[in-house]
Amino acid sequence: MIIVMKRDATKADVEAVIERVHSFGLRTHVSVGEERTIVGIIGDERNLPVHQIERLNGVERAVPILHPFKLASSEFVQGRTVVQVGNVRIGGEEIVVMAGPCAVESREQLIETAIAVKKAGAQILRGGAFKPRTSPYSFQGLGREGLEYLAEARALTGLPVVTEVVSPTDVELVSEYADILQIGARNSQNFALLHEVGLTHKPVLLKRGMMSRLEEFLMSAEYILAAGNPNVILCERGIRTFETYTRNTVDINAVPVLKQLSHLPVLLDPSHGTGKWDLVPAVAKAAVAAGADGLLIEVHPRPEEALSDGMQSLKPDKFAALMRDLARVAQAVDRKLTLEAGV
Ligand code: PEP
Ligand code: MN
Questions:
Q1: DSSP letter for each residue of 186-210
Q2: Is pLDDT at 6 greater than 70 in this prediction?
Q3: Nearest CA to ligand 1 atom 4
Q4: Number of structural domains, the chain?
Q5: Mutation pick for ligand 1 pocket among 269, 295, 307 (CB with most ligand atoms within 8 Å)
Q6: pLDDT at 343
Q7: Judging by DSSP bridges, how do beta strands 27-32 and 59-63 pair with one another?
Q8: pLDDT of residue 303 exceeding 60
Q9: pLDDT tens digit sequence for 314-330
Q10: Are residues 219 and 317 in the same domain?
Q11: pLDDT for 341
């Protein structure tokens, strides 16, 4: 439920409402808009005497929330959330591209890729140090060593880094290095992990589970928000369907739907979404045209040697060409993508 305050409600009116709601053991989230203030109610509302609240000074009305997610809901928060990472604003006018290898494989591989993606205009460097692999015999990532290389690549290029955390016990370690914590599709409903990253104030890139409905996806975001971390970025990465020609099926609907239902920034990952490098450009462009705030793209200098996801990784020259096309698509939909020559 949200309590919509009158335009002329005073600060004291708002505080009285908050106090009354708290007296029923519920929490509040206040959103101060240009026109009016909204007090969102968090918790089990069954015993809340709504009519009493509506009688308080300055209250216009109490409105039930249609969705089970609250803090993630566009009904609860006025305007769009911009997640700030260093100088990069995710969810603003600018389309933010996060690019880099699937996995950090070596110092040289990462630094070579970091320089290339920066030159092409990427604003964030990606690379997995802890890899959630289907087989226990596949390359699992370099762990702490990989995090060290990411920090080195950041120091060299100035690009903030996003990297995955796969276990609640690793959150502290990964947070020491990462600018953005990535929660992968396989952990999208690992509620203990979501809660743990929610206790940090690091921005979180939350990927959609391959079997998650959009409502479930937003409930995952809700776990992070409810633990106190407001910096959540949503990422559609394709879902499982009967179609097997592509690795996953990109749900392009997710972009406008998530932007309708939520105030959080929405990214799309065309690499895992398609599983095929030659399909990545078309889907990347479609995502920007559909209103995505950014993209997550895998780039490898020698995909044929990649230890994971070589099939879907773009070579640097193809990535640079895509960035030029994306800048034109962005302009066509009144967004910006700056192709900044790099290091
Ligand atoms: C990744 O981004 O490298 C990754 C493992 O993606 P997903 O969790 O979407 O499969
Ligand atoms: Mn990958």
A1: GGTT-HHHHHHHHTS-S-EEEEPPT
A2: yes
A3: 184
A4: 2
A5: 269
A6: 47
A7: unpaired
A8: yes
A9: 999 999 999 999 999 99
A10: yes
A11: 55
Domain boundary among 30, 63, 96: 63
Q: Which domain holds residue 15?
A: 2-63
Residue nearest to atom 8 of ligand 1 (CA): 184
Hey, what are 334's tokens? 């009144």
Q: What is the pTM of this model?
A: 0.94
The tokens describing 35, both together, are: 């026109």
Phi-psi region of 121 (alpha: psi -120 to 50; beta: other; left: phi over 0): left
From the CA of 308, give the closest atom in ligand 1. 3
Instruction: Check which CATH number belongs to the domain holding 52 and give it.
Output: 3.30.70.1140
Structure confidence by residue, pLDDT tens digits, 96-141: 999 999 999 999 999 999 999 999 999 999 999 999 999 999 999 9
Let me know if residue 249 belongs to a domain: yes
Q: Which of 113, 205, 207, 295 to mutate to test the pocket of ligand 1 (most atoms within 8 A of CB)?
A: 207
Centroid of ligand 1 to alpha carbon of 112 (angstroms): 21
**Same domain, yes or no: 186 and 150:** yes
299 and 198 in one domain? Answer: yes
Distance of CA 20 to the CA centre of its chain: 34
Rg of the chain on CA atoms, in Å: 21
**CB-defined site of ligand 1, < 6 Å:** 102, 128, 132, 184-186, 207, 237, 269, 272
Ligand 2 centroid to 127 CA: how many Å?
9
* pLDDT tens figures, 274-298: 999 999 999 999 999 999 999 999 9
Mean pLDDT of 67-76: 92
Q: How far is the CA of 33 from the centre of ligand 1 (A)?
A: 36
Distance CA 84, CA 90 (A): 6
